[in-house]
Write a structure and sequence with these properties.
Layout lengths: L2 H38 L7
């Protein structure tokens, strides 16, 4: 394998890992966002 081929494989591997990390972060945000909103609002509206 040439140095250029190795570099290309490493770059592709890194890009895949970064994409997966971003997807996992987005899933976590979408999971926790409703909970955070409920913490910020009162359970019973003030009168």
């Amino acid at each position: 394998m040439t140095a250029a081929a190795i570099k290309a494989r490493v770059m592709i591997s890194m890009m895949i890992k970064m994409r997966q990390r971003d997807e996992i972060a987005a899933i976590r945000r979408s999971h926790w966002a409703p909970s955070e909103m409920s913490w910020k609002t009162a359970a019973v509206p003030a009168r």
